[in-house]
Amino acid sequence: MLPFPPIARPLKFYAVVPDANWVARMVAAGADTVQLRSKTLSGEALRQEVRRAVAAARGSNSQLFINDHWRLALEEGAYGVHLGQEDMDSADFPSLAAAGIRLGLSTHDEAEMARALAVRPSYVACGAVFATATKAMPTEPQGLEKLRRYVQLAGSTPTVAIGGITLENAPAVLATGVSSLAVVSAVTQAPDPAAAVRAFQKLWPE
């Protein structure tokens, strides 16, 4: 099978947001990477949401990934798609790779990391690093030592840390060598989301 295309720019700060309006806000704030994670819509409403998100990111420096809905991502011309382990059984990886779409895969332990890397994705996400209230997790928080191990296992494949990441613990997370920090509530619940984006981005050297 073809490897998935590499990401065009470093993933760095990765905002995971619930709708196209939030995607537009994150693009306007200059987020390096944005993921649309829509859990409430279906059918035509979901298609329109994906379409709006793709349009919001088009021509910007933000790399947009669509969570779960790989068929819609493919049909609407999305830059990338992010899938969980449970989605790997049904996804048409050859078609996605042939279309040039970028692929991110979630992992929660070494076995899932090995399974994800076998697909040769554009990046792998590792989590949850810390306890998170955003999503029911199938495993206990991984912690920094396991994250460091996952980064080593991934080799040259970019890695995204997710789960309970805040501005306070972000420097310690980056010290593991991980490529990117993905956050949900650290931006969606921030008093000034655009300022939160800028604050996180300052953690990476120019």
TrEMBL record:
<dbReference type="InterPro" id="IPR034291">
    <property type="entry name" value="TMP_synthase"/>
</dbReference>
<feature type="binding site">
    <location>
        <position position="68"/>
    </location>
    <ligand>
        <name>Mg(2+)</name>
    </ligand>
</feature>
<dbReference type="InterPro" id="IPR036206">
    <property type="entry name" value="ThiamineP_synth_sf"/>
</dbReference>
<feature type="binding site">
    <location>
        <position position="106"/>
    </location>
    <ligand>
        <name>4-amino-2-methyl-5-(diphosphooxymethyl)pyrimidine</name>
    </ligand>
</feature>
<dbReference type="InterPro" id="IPR013785">
    <property type="entry name" value="Aldolase_TIM"/>
</dbReference>
<comment type="similarity">
    <text>Belongs to the thiamine-phosphate synthase family.</text>
</comment>
<protein>
    <recommendedName>
        <fullName>Thiamine-phosphate synthase</fullName>
        <ecNumber>2.5.1.3</ecNumber>
    </recommendedName>
</protein>
<feature type="binding site">
    <location>
        <position position="164"/>
    </location>
    <ligand>
        <name>2-[(2R,5Z)-2-carboxy-4-methylthiazol-5(2H)-ylidene]ethyl phosphate</name>
    </ligand>
</feature>
<feature type="binding site">
    <location>
        <position position="67"/>
    </location>
    <ligand>
        <name>4-amino-2-methyl-5-(diphosphooxymethyl)pyrimidine</name>
    </ligand>
</feature>
<feature type="binding site">
    <location>
        <position position="87"/>
    </location>
    <ligand>
        <name>Mg(2+)</name>
    </ligand>
</feature>
<keyword id="KW-0808">Transferase</keyword>
<feature type="domain" description="Thiamine phosphate synthase/TenI">
    <location>
        <begin position="20"/>
        <end position="187"/>
    </location>
</feature>
<feature type="binding site">
    <location>
        <position position="135"/>
    </location>
    <ligand>
        <name>4-amino-2-methyl-5-(diphosphooxymethyl)pyrimidine</name>
    </ligand>
</feature>
<keyword id="KW-0784">Thiamine biosynthesis</keyword>
<dbReference type="GO" id="GO:0000287">
    <property type="term" value="F:magnesium ion binding"/>
</dbReference>
<dbReference type="GO" id="GO:0009229">
    <property type="term" value="P:thiamine diphosphate biosynthetic process"/>
</dbReference>
<keyword id="KW-0479">Metal-binding</keyword>
<dbReference type="GO" id="GO:0005737">
    <property type="term" value="C:cytoplasm"/>
</dbReference>
<comment type="pathway">
    <text>Cofactor biosynthesis; thiamine diphosphate biosynthesis; thiamine phosphate from 4-amino-2-methyl-5-diphosphomethylpyrimidine and 4-methyl-5-(2-phosphoethyl)-thiazole: step 1/1.</text>
</comment>
<dbReference type="Pfam" id="PF02581">
    <property type="entry name" value="TMP-TENI"/>
</dbReference>
<dbReference type="GO" id="GO:0009228">
    <property type="term" value="P:thiamine biosynthetic process"/>
</dbReference>
<keyword id="KW-0460">Magnesium</keyword>
<comment type="function">
    <text>Condenses 4-methyl-5-(beta-hydroxyethyl)thiazole monophosphate (THZ-P) and 2-methyl-4-amino-5-hydroxymethyl pyrimidine pyrophosphate (HMP-PP) to form thiamine monophosphate (TMP).</text>
</comment>
<feature type="binding site">
    <location>
        <begin position="35"/>
        <end position="39"/>
    </location>
    <ligand>
        <name>4-amino-2-methyl-5-(diphosphooxymethyl)pyrimidine</name>
    </ligand>
</feature>
<dbReference type="InterPro" id="IPR022998">
    <property type="entry name" value="ThiamineP_synth_TenI"/>
</dbReference>
<feature type="binding site">
    <location>
        <begin position="132"/>
        <end position="134"/>
    </location>
    <ligand>
        <name>2-[(2R,5Z)-2-carboxy-4-methylthiazol-5(2H)-ylidene]ethyl phosphate</name>
    </ligand>
</feature>
<feature type="binding site">
    <location>
        <begin position="184"/>
        <end position="185"/>
    </location>
    <ligand>
        <name>2-[(2R,5Z)-2-carboxy-4-methylthiazol-5(2H)-ylidene]ethyl phosphate</name>
    </ligand>
</feature>
<dbReference type="GO" id="GO:0004789">
    <property type="term" value="F:thiamine-phosphate diphosphorylase activity"/>
</dbReference>
